[in-house]
Amino acid sequence: MKKILFLVSIIAMLTACKQVSKKQSVQSQVEPKQAQKSLVNDDLLETAVIYEANMRQYSPEGTLNAFAKDLPKLKKMGVKIIWLMPIYPISKVKRKATGDTFVSQIKNLEERNKYLGSPYAVADYTAVNPDFGTLDDLKNLVAKAHENGQIVILDWVANHTGWDHPWIKKHPDYYTHNKKGEITDPLNADGTSKGWQDVADLNYDNPAMRQEMIKSMQYWLKTADIDGFRCDVAGEVPVDFWRYAIHKLRHTKPVFMLAEAWEPELLKDNIFDACYGWESHFLLADIAKGKKTVKDWDKYVKKIDTMYEPDDILMNFTANHDENSWKGTEDETFGKAKELMRVITFMIKGMPLIYSGQEYGLHHRLKFFEKDLIDRTNGNDFDFYAKLGKLKNNNPALNGGKHPAVYQRIKVDNDKVLAFKRIKKGKEVVFIGNMSPELQQFKFAVLGNYKDYFTGKDVNLSESINLPAWGYYVLIK
After folding, report:
1. Which residues, in sequence order, are CB contacts of 76 under 8 Å at separation 6+?
2. 269 in the Ramachandran plot: left (φ > 0), alpha (ψ -120 to 50) or beta?
3. How confident is the model over 307-360, as pLDDT tens digits?
């Protein structure tokens, strides 16, 4: 936890940030005369797929320009939000290699040069990593995305900086200090290190630092027409900072704000638009491993309906950069249930995420501190995501933004089978999934005739149905 805020900081926040009693739409939070034009609106959020771009690993060049060429291709998968992992210069001081090893500890120069550091050890908040390109390259990428009807959000690391960030020398008071007066890396509540020794912890007791942080975020909206931010470890930063900062950002232009967090208070009063669906990810992984069941899924759905407000958005995923690099590939996490779980992330309330490489069947853990190219030769996964993305974009029954489609559980005479429908504006999508490693037979009450979205075949739900292990149906009228 950060320290208790200075009184002057509290007064500044309360004066500048008027609370709202109910959540409003993205657009209504911004005064039109002050706001820049933006593609961010409620309609986009209802139908969007997010794509997390790992620039270093995406292409042989590893550049913004190389990635920009593929924006039309990503659009075919329904991608409307491009999340760029940190594009800023990376700190060289205390740069990590592997595990707890620092680059400075490696004597062999050739070996040392392999390690490019963590993109989350930011050396300058308002510059572009020259390995990725230039500011003009970023502007060009954003402009192309906007032409495609896509928005671009930057990964923002507000909790800490790299050790050679200019603030370290110019404003040491911006950082957390130990009893010896030394700047520290991020610490747990008991004073032990979180293990992020390559970064320095920022002190949110300092109002001046808060203002500089907001100015740095504003820079990207005004200079590169960025459309929002995915905020790293957002729960480690005081909520009142986010409330004030995001309020200020929305006076510049409508923005989409995604928190790498689960805490409901971060979404209250239209602070963040969306947060991570961590619990659904872990639950689906446990179901795939036989540790949890459909009953646990039903309990989860009831739980989130009480935890979150109706217009809170959860980002659903089977992979992201942390999961892939540190915990395992989709194959390791979900095994033969992988495809079923991918489909579920598109079918449930919220916004689905595709991580770089998933569309090409990424089968290995991407190295985090060095170049590790994604193999983009497999096209089967791309076609699969394109099919899902098209349905997500075009069928209101899969709306998952501020005004999501209804989720309605369907009773079935087999507790290994999950069945539900999504309904909105007279449209209906039915999902049926065998959440087990054995073939399951089951029957419904009469629901009528549907069409299998993936095969185009007719399905009569009044008849007895067989689904193979981890099999599924996505049905439309």
Report:
1. 382, 386, 389
2. left
3. 999 999 999 999 999 999 999 999 999 999 999 999 999 999 999 999 999 999
**Side chain identity at residue 156, one-letter code:** W
pLDDT (0 to 100) of residue 447: 81
Other CB atoms closer than 10 Å to residue 279's CB: what's the count? 14
pLDDT band at 200 (very low <50, low <70, confident <90, very high): very high
Write the pLDDT tens digit of every residue in 85-134. 999 999 999 999 987 889 999 999 999 999 999 999 999 999 999 999 99
Contact between 464 and 442 (Cβ < 8 Å): yes
Topology of domain 7-13+30-404, per CATH? TIM Barrel (3.20.20)
CATH code for residues 417-476: 2.60.40.1180
Residues of the chain within CATH 2.60.40.1180 domain(s) are 417-476
The CATH 3.20.20.80 portion of the chain extends over: 7-13+30-404
Residue 21 clears pLDDT 70, i.e. is over it: no
Contact 353, 310 (CB under 8 A): no
